[in-house]
Design goal:
It is a peripheral membrane protein. It is found in: Cell inner membrane. This is ABC transporter related. The chain has 238 residues and is α/β, with parallel strands linked by helices. It has helices spanning 42-50, 92-98, 107-121, 136-148, 166-183, 194-200, 218-223, 228-234, and strands spanning 4-13, 16-26, 31-35, 57-62, 65-66, 77-80, 154-158, 186-191, 203-208, 211-216. 34% of the residues lie in helices and 26% in strands. The protein is globular. The protein binds adenosine-5'-diphosphate and magnesium ion. Residues 13, 18, 36, 38-44 line the site of adenosine-5'-diphosphate. The site of adenosine-5'-diphosphate has 10 residues, from helix 1.
C-alpha cells in the first residue's frame, strides 16, 4: 500500500499547457475516482503518476519519496488501460507472466504469482486459452491479472470499462470494488461516467480544463458541490 501525493503538477506539450498546477493527496488504501469531461487532462495526470509522461513542473511522491525521476517499472505502480491490448499469440497465463519478465523472478515464483492472480480473478480454468477465445469481461479480467501479478502498491485504471456493454460494466464495477476490498491497494480510477464515480469512490476528484475543481466524498459533492460545473457533473439538485 502507499500514499500518493501530487504537488503543483503542470504538464505542457510544447507551448500548450494542459494541466495547470494541480495538487491532491490519495491516502493509503483509498479508492479515488478522477472524473471530468473528455480532454480535461485525466489520462495525462494518470500517465504522469505512472511515469509514462514527463512532468513539466511539480512533484509526485509515493510514501513521501519523490518519484519524478524513478523509472515506471520501479514505481510499484500498475496501470490498466481502456484499450487493454492483450498479446493475441500468448495464452492467458503467458500474458500475465509477461508483465513479470523484467522482475527477474524464477519460473516457480512466476507460476505461483500467475496462479494466485488467476484465483483472485476467477481465471483458473482459462489459463491456457488465447485472448481470441475469451469474452470481453474475461479479457478485462486478464488485463487486471497482468496488473495484479506485480503486487503493485498503486493501481491506476484509465476508463477500464468504457469498451464493455452496459450489463458487463455493472458487473465489472462490482468485481473491481471487491478486488479493492480484498487487496486494499491504493487506487486511482479515471472515468467520465458519473454513476461509476458516485457508486465506487471513497473520494472523487473533479477535473475541468486541466484544473481540479473539487475533491470530496460522493456525498460531499452531492450535498455541497463547489460550483455549478460540479453540480451539473455529479447530477446534484443544487
Ligand atoms: P482526458 O483523459 O481527460 O480525456 P487527456 O489527458 O487525454 O484528457 O488530454 C488532455 C489534453 O491534452 C487534451 O487537450 C489533449 O488533446 C492534449 N494532449 C494529450 N496528449 C497530447 C500529446 N501527446 N500532445 C499534445 N497534446 C496532447
Ligand atoms: Mg483519457
Amino acid at each position: 500500500m502507499a500514499r500518493v501525493e501530487i504537488e503543483n503538477i503542470t504538464k505542457r506539450y510544447g507551448h500548450l499547457e494542459v494541466v495547470h498546477g494541480v495538487s491532491a493527496c490519495i491516502e493509503d488504501g483509498e479508492f479515488v475516482i478522477l472524473v471530468g469531461p473528455s480532454g480535461c487532462g485525466k489520462s495525462t495526470l494518470l500517465r504522469m503518476i505512472a511515469g509514462l509522461e514527463h512532468i513539466s513542473d511539480g512533484t509526485i511522491s509515493i510514501d513521501g519519496e519523490v518519484v519524478n525521476d524513478v523509472a515506471p517499472k520501479d514505481r510499484n505502480i500498475a496501470m490498466v488501460f481502456q484499450n487493454y491490448a492483450l498479446y493475441p499469440h500468448m495464452t492467458v497465463a503467458q500474458n500475465m507472466a509477461f508483465s513479470l519478465k523484467l522482475s527477474g523472478l524464477g519460473k516457480d515464483e512466476t507460476r505461483d504469482k500467475v496462479g494466485n492472480a488467476a484465483r483472485i480473478l476467477g481465471l483458473e480454468k482459462l489459463l491456457d486459452r488465447y485472448p481470441g477465445q475469451l469474452s470481453g469481461g474475461q479479457r478485462q479480467r486478464v488485463a487486471m491479472g497482468r496488473a495484479i501479478v506485480r503486487d503493485p502498491e498503486v493501481f491506476l485504471f484509465d476508463e477500464p470499462l468504457s469498451n464493455l456493454d452496459a450489463k458487463l460494466r455493472v458487473q465489472m464495477r462490482a468485481e473491481i470494488k471487491s478486488l479493492h476490498q480484498r487487496l486494499k491497494t491504493t487506487t486511482i480510477y479515471v472515468t467520465h461516467d458519473q454513476v461509476e464515480a458516485m457508486t465506487m469512490a471513497d473520494r472523487i476528484v473533479v477535473m475541468r480544463d486541466g484544473l481540479i475543481e473539487q475533491v470530496g466524498s460522493p456525498l460531499d459533492l452531492y450535498d455541497e458541490p463547489a460550483n455549478l460545473f460540479v453540480a451539473g457533473f455529479i447530477g446534484s439538485p443544487t
